[in-house]
């Protein structure tokens, strides 16, 4: 009798065990192990993307930091330098470093990135090494790093998420354009231009003022008065006028307005993309009127402290290329050396009006804003 009961109990126990195993097999595929503290999955991360473009005498690096998290993130930067770029040759020798020779403000800056959005930056290399010599043809690698500083209580970002690299080849043809743009290689035997000056000779001082002074005075007063109708009379009929928010002219991306658009410039309520803010990399999205107050008439330039005619009065951290981009221009610069003594001259500002010869006169083809950049 006891043996029968024991056998029955053993059979029942076996069936129970088999049932549990079957249940685990059937349902186990749907079970998920709870994530550990701070785990967000493989897709919740930052990603640094980079690309390059070969231009005339330069390489343009465009790069961004993408937020793949499900929520907005705030990133701290410890200075005005938010990224570093190092270019190395085939022998792994450093030929260019973005930060060399630059000074950056020491201030804690926070930047927000929405889910799926990105922060953008750009840098230009003139194809010359750290000694100022043109580099040789060959393969090169640009190593890009976004310089986010860790906070005491903030989550640590994997450094690999803040880095990327791009590889490119510099040919003899590409490097020849760099040589052609360099002042030391200018051809002194070129003929005279339409003004009677040699093509490589820049009209300066009293000669430039005599040619353009009266026209520039009318243009700067039209800008002060926000008189689009008067201003449009001076705009080049074919090229229009290009707006550059910071001193480095970018023909491919700077916004250009025709004389007809300038007529209604100050009444236009359209929000345009004008480039990117220095230091933050945020897009400059403003109406023409808003852009005017920030990047054109940001000071009373009619009463500028100094006026230069084809003479660069202001220098910042950005490269100067206006005389290479524009065709034998006369550039009038209205310059203030600063406004607040506490800033020791770091709040200087200038406005440059670019004129090019057209038919039997001179027309406005560029308006360049300049200020201290980080």
User: Residue share in helices?
Assistant: 10-25%
CATH level 3 topology of the largest domain? Nuclear Transport Factor 2, Chain: A
- The low-confidence runs, each spanning 5 or more residues with pLDDT under 50, are 23-41, 180-200
Q: What about the largest sheet?
A: 6 strands, mixed
Strands of the widest sheet, in order across it, are: 11-10-17-16-15-14
Q: From the coordinates shown, what is the CATH architecture of the largest domain?
A: Roll
Task: Please describe what this structure looks like.
Helices cover 21% and strands 30% of the residues. By secondary structure, the protein is of the alpha+beta class. The chain folds into two domains: 46-180, Immunoglobulin-like (Sandwich); 205-371, Nuclear Transport Factor 2, Chain: A (Roll), CATH 3.10.450. A hairpin with a 2-residue loop joins strand 1 (46-55) and strand 2. The radius of gyration is 30 Å and the shape is globular.
Q: What is the topology?
A:
Layout: H1 2-27, E1 46-55, E2 58-67, E3 73-77, E4 83-88, E5 94-97, E6 109-113, E7 118-125, E8 138-146, E9 163-170, H2 172-181, H3 205-224, H4 228-232, E10 241-244, E11 255-257, H5 259-263, E12 272-276, E13 283-286, H6 288-296, E14 306-309, H7 322-325, E15 330-336, E16 349-358, E17 361-371
Parallel strand pairs: 10-17
Antiparallel strand pairs: 1-2, 2-7, 3-6, 4-5, 4-8, 8-9, 10-11, 12-13, 14-15, 15-16, 16-17
Distinctive features:
single chain, 374 residues, Immunoglobulin-like, Nuclear Transport Factor 2, Chain: A, 2 domains, 6-stranded mixed beta sheet, 21% helix, 30% strand, globular
């Amino acid at each position: 009798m006891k043996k029968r009961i024991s056998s029955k109990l053993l059979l029942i126990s076996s069936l129970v065990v088999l049932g549990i195993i079957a249940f685990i097999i059937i349902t186990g595929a749907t079970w998920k192990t709870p994530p550990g503290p701070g785990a967000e999955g493989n897709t919740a991360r930052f990603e640094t993307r980079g690309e390059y473009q070969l231009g005339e005498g330069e390489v343009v690096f465009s790069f961004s930091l993408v937020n793949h998290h499900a929520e907005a993130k705030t990133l701290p930067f410890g200075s005005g330098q938010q990224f570093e770029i190092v270019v190395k040759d085939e022998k792994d020798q450093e030929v260019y470093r973005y930060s060399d020779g630059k000074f950056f403000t020491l201030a804690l800056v926070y930047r927000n990135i929405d889910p799926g959005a990105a922060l953008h930056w750009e840098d230009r290399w003139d194809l010359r090494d750290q000694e100022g010599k043109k580099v040789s043809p060959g393969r090169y690698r640009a190593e890009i790093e976004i310089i986010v500083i860790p906070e005491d209580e903030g989550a640590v970002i994997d450094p690999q998420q803040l880095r990327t690299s791009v590889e490119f080849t510099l040919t003899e043809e590409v490097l020849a354009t760099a040589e052609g743009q360099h002042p030391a290689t200018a051809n002194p035997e070129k003929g005279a231009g339409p003004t009677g000056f040699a093509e490589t000779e820049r009209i300066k001082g009293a000669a430039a003022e005599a040619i353009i002074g009266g026209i520039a005075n009318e243009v700067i007063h039209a800008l002060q008065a926000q008189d689009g109708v008067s201003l449009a009379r001076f705009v080049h009929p074919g090229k229009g006028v290009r707006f550059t928010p910071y001193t480095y002219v970018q023909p491919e991306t700077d916004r250009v307005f025709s004389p007809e658009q300038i007529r209604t410039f100050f009444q236009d309520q359209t929000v345009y993309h004008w480039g990117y803010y220095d230091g933050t990399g945020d897009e400059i999205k403003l109406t023409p009127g808003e852009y005017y107050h920030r990047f054109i008439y940001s000071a009373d330039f009619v009463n500028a402290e100094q006026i230069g005619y084809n003479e660069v009065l202001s220098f910042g951290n950005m490269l100067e290329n206006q005389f290479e981009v524009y065709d034998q221009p006369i550039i009038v610069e209205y310059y203030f050396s600063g406004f607040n003594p506490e800033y020791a001259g770091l709040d200087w500002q200038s406005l440059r009006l670019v004129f090019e010869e057209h038919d039997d006169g001179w027309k406005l083809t560029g308006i360049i804003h300049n200020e201290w950049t980080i």
